[in-house]
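Hello Y.,

Per our agreement to keep a running log of every chain we model this quarter, I'm adding this entry. I've kept the format consistent with earlier entries: sequence first, then predicted structure.
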Amino acid sequence: KDFDTFFPTSTLITGNDILFFWVIRMVFSSLKQTGKIPFNKVVLHGLVRDALGRKMSKSLNNGIDPLEAIAEYGADALRFSLVQGLSLEVDLRYSKDRLDIAKAFINKLWNSAKFVFMALEDNNHPKKPETSAFAPEDNWILGKLDQTIAGVTKELDTFEFGDALQKLYDFFWNDYCSWYIEMVKPRLYDKENPSREAAQYVLAHGLTVILKLLHPFLPFVTEELYQNLKTDENELLITAPWPEMSNIASAEDSENIELLQYFITNLRNVRANMNIEPSKKTSLIFVAKETGDYLKSAEPILQKLAFAKAVEIRANKDGIPDNAICIEHLKATLYIPFEDLVDIEAEIARLQTEKEKYITLIERVKAKLANEKFVEKAPAATVAGERDKLKNYETLLSSIEERLAKLA
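Predicted structure for the entry above:
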């Protein structure tokens, strides 16, 4: 009975080094003894090698004991580390760093799930609200989730396990955690917000789908988290149905969220380049037409993620100071009053100090390069390094002088 149930099988997945030594012999042996081909498909993959690309062997002592890896990191981390970055066409270079990456991802998954549980009422999966209750960020993440379901399913169907895991990794880490969870925190913390339940539902639904998609790669951790998320399914994750797409994404909402991400990302870069403290709040002035209403409605998100103290929408830039920081996009332009970012007098003093420092450094390097003995006797790489250093110093000095001119 077991033989009839499990033979022939559908697919054999094996290393490419034993195609002729073993796989073909299995086919011939099966045909000889049963008259049947033992499998319909053969998927060949590369070998697991060490970090230098060498085959693992006892003589080189370059192998990794899976039992030791499991004892230190867990079985899921080992499984994850063997799949991430995997390509069927090439060998996998393996090192312990892969286990550290896997550990970091699992910790992120665990902590994010704990946050979702705390945001729900007694870990209960909320009922699905009416579609009209969803905010733009809800529709955006549901659209991203649909893309991930389709992409992961396609990659698994074609045995591209590494690509499937990478799609999941990117969606979970970037879209779900870095953006969506942060976007909905203002709604979650405001118990009077009418869209709070919609945010709770999308958070829980997103986590449920993520756990299902990740289950082939992290079976133990995902099962544990799934059992803590109280759903109507009341079943083991391993027997739960594969997730289906919701098909409620909105192209307009997706475009608006991408616009918001563009401004938040660029504003963060501006603040980082200017060493602005996160506690320093700024006014945000948008010159926009079609997107103005959405940008104003996104004020709570901009306050949370872009350190905004107020959001203003204008039809044109009349009255906006000339020294305001400008971030342009085809659909809108963002202006940040410079005095909101820095104390102008203090910034001028700081830049003057920086200017004097680079003038001194430039003079020092020029003097060294003007020394014929140094140029003749020093290694060519050292001389080239000094010339590169001079070029960098001059570029930085020019940038500082431009900023001083604008402030003046």
